Amino acid sequence: MPCTTILVGKKASADGVAMVARNEDYFTAFNPKRFVVIKPEDQPVHYQSVHNKLKLELPKDPQRYTSLLEADIKKDGYWGEVGINTANVSMSATETSTTNSRVLGVDPLNPKGIGEEDFVTIVLPYIHTAREGVQRLGQLLEKYGTYESNGVAFGDANEVWYMETIGGHHWAAKKVPDDSYVAAPNWFSITDFDFNSDDTMASADLEQMIEDNHLNLDRDGYNLRHIFGSHNDSDYGYNIPRQWYIQHLFNPHDDLRPDDPEMPFAKKPEHLLTVEDVKYALSSHYQHTPYDTYEGTPEKKHQFRPIGIQRNQEVHVLQVRPNVDPAEAGIIWLAYGPNPYNGLAPFYTNVLDTPAPYRDSSKKFDINNMYWLTHTIATMGDDHNWRYNASLEALGRNTLAQGRHIVATTDAQFADAKDEKAQQQLLMDANEKTAKAAHDLALKCLGEMVQKGSLQMKLNY
Question: Which CATH number is 4-367 given?
Fold first, then answer.
């Protein structure tokens, strides 16, 4: 999927909690997603993909985990995309990436291999740390191959890793520095790479493959973006500007250019980052620049692909909090639809069920689903973005604020829960409150837009 990823190390975060965040984008405007809990008894053992009918046997001891599935998994496949398991390991998959002909000539893609449809389902239930996630997916890539180029993020309470597939059967991964962030926009992102570092992992034969096939064009060291990435004209309109704008937001005083293909993999932000910062970046359309899709100059406003776009299906920010009881540590901040028109809400992940407005998305329009409610707001707001700006900003601000308040209140009550059952019920009750608050705020925003917009109708006299 054509997505955008932001990863934040724990020492670059205002609350000391690392973040794994991504927009899930699609090829068209509509692809409803369902936020669900997959229990061990519901996890497949004999797995078969829909895309290419790949079959593989999965371990018989899965953990419970959250996932964001397709509306119809029997027809379309799982496409789990994101989740947190009971070991408090997070996973976001995938950031569709690019490569080059020299790499594919050495290690061609495998049409019968694994891919984005499968990754979360066949990896997340079986791992206990972020490093284990890299290792398991690496083993599966080496065994089955893959039919596409992808980036995948793993996180736990201590660290975040970014992993990129290489050709059909190879891979490399790098730990996000604790004091830095990563912005990955649909192209190969890892730059400087030390094969002997504890903060990197790779296919056992990757370094030898590079040497044997003369893939390294640099005189010194290994820059994996140079070696394995694309170098296309289209990158300058589709990918590079997104990385530039995120780095511009988080490092506003640096001299950065939207056409610079040498921006670093990881960068220290000027200020500590919040969930709000990440959400703004993942909703952005080059605000306060000539490239703004809505307010930019006529010759530049459509020059670059924006981050917040009509093809956003959902945005998530995953946190595993190290400073609370592990039973309440996992949180997914979630919103559906085009990001400039939604509000991000936090949900605990150590639960047995999820709220209906986020769980029951269907392929048919239903205003009770957050997915379709957000698309209604977006469709109405797009033609007159500035007219509705106050209501839209209030939606985003108040959804985050109410979610933060519910989490803080629930955290304060957690120690009083008598047992695991009581704890999970407390978390599920909190999730229901959050979902209701988010849905009510979205309806309020829509109502304000209708009232304001109707006064500007052309059908007037």
Answer: 3.60.60.10
